[in-house]
């Protein structure tokens, strides 16, 4: 409608509302203080005020190293390393409590645990734990298929090494936990009575070395390093290391403007005069007004 048809009291307050609306419209979106914290154990997390989405990163737990249960003198394979996953935008509601799950450390011959963060509408970040065996074969690393994250931001853990088929010859090394940009490295086989090296080389947790001839396997390092295999007779594999979750990082939240409340009573001519002052186009105004909420 034309501004000449607006009731007198509206005409009186319109200039004031217009000035306020323009000031708010020109104000940049509110920046939420971005904080980053590393969680090494499962716990609850409350979304802060004005935070409507977060970025979550998870590392699955490593699996424990093995011993050959069929032949007591035979060495064991290494445990697989945990996977890594990242989800850049997980919707949350300010004031609501969410659960951050961190895969706990495990003992020998035990699969690694999942690490995860689940927001609204089922949007989540999940990193699978590594797996183990009960013989000289190495366990597989946590897989991409069993994890959930953005395309190109999910990586598998390194596989545990497979031990040589001879008595008391040392265990194989555990797989490395996945890196933030690459698959974890595999553990190495044993050699001549010396345990194999654990996978290493990226920013994932290192796999534990296999035990030498008659020694136990070594525990992996966090996050998600697989345990080394048992060295031989009556030895046990090393423990798989716990995973990790990096604290949800708050993202910028939009700020509505009073200008959008005035759109229904502004003529095309008046809008054409206002747009250069706001720095927005008619298309942007139309798009934003669809989702605007009044400030009361």
Please describe what this structure looks like.
- It is a single chain.
- With 296 residues, this protein is an alpha+beta fold.
- The protein folds into two domains: 62 residues, no CATH class; 224 residues, no CATH class.
- Helices cover 15% and strands 15% of the residues.
- The chain has four helices and nine strands.
- Strand 6 and strand 7 form a beta hairpin.
- The radius of gyration is 28 Å and the shape is elongated.
Q: Strand pairing plus helix content: what structural class?
A: alpha+beta
For the sheet with most strands, the description reads: 5 strands, antiparallel
Weakly predicted, low-confidence segments: 252-266, 277-296
Proportion of strand residues: 5-15%
Helical segment count: 4
């Amino acid at each position: 409608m034309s501004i000449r048809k607006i009731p007198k009291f509206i005409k009186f307050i319109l200039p004031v509302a217009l000035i306020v609306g323009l000031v708010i419209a020109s104000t940049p979106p509110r920046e939420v203080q971005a904080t980053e914290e590393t969680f090494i154990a499962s716990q609850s997390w409350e979304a802060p005020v004005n935070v409507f989405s977060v970025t979550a990163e998870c590392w699955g737990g490593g699996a424990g190293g093995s011993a050959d249960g069929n032949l007591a003198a035979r060495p064991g394979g290494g445990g697989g390393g945990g996977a890594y996953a990242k989800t850049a935008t997980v919707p949350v509601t300010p004031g609501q409590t969410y659960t951050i799950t961190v895969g706990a450390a495990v003992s020998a011959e035990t699969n690694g645990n999942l690490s995860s963060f689940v927001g609204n509408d089922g949007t989540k970040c999940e990193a699978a734990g590594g797996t183990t065996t009960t013989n000289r074969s190495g366990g597989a690393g946590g897989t991409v298929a069993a994890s959930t994250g953005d395309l190109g931001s999910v990586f598998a853990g390194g596989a545990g090494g497979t031990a040589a088929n001879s008595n008391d010859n040392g265990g194989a090394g555990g797989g490395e936990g996945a890196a933030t940009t690459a698959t974890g490295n595999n553990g190495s086989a044993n050699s001549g009575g010396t345990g194999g090296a654990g996978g290493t080389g990226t920013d994932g947790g290192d796999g534990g070395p296999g035990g030498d001839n008659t020694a136990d396997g070594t525990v992996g390092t966090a996050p998600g390093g697989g345990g080394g295999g048992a060295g031989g007779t009556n030895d046990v594999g090393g423990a798989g290391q716990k995973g990790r979750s990096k604290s949800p990082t708050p993202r910028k939240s939009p700020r509505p403007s009073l200008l959008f409340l005035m759109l229904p009573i502004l003529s095309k001519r008046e809008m054409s005069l206002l747009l250069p002052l706001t720095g927005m186009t008619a298309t942007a105004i139309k798009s934003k007004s669809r989702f605007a909420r009044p400030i009361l």
